[in-house]
Amino acid sequence: MIIRQVTEDDLSQVAHIEEVSFQNPYPADIFTFLFEKYRETFLVIEQGGTVLGYITGIDSWREGHIVSLAIHPAWRNKGIAAQLVEEICMILKEKGKKRVKLEVRISNEAALNLYKKVGFEEQKIVQNYYENGEDAVLMKRRLQ
Question: What is the value of pTM for the model shown?
Answer without folding.
Answer: 0.92
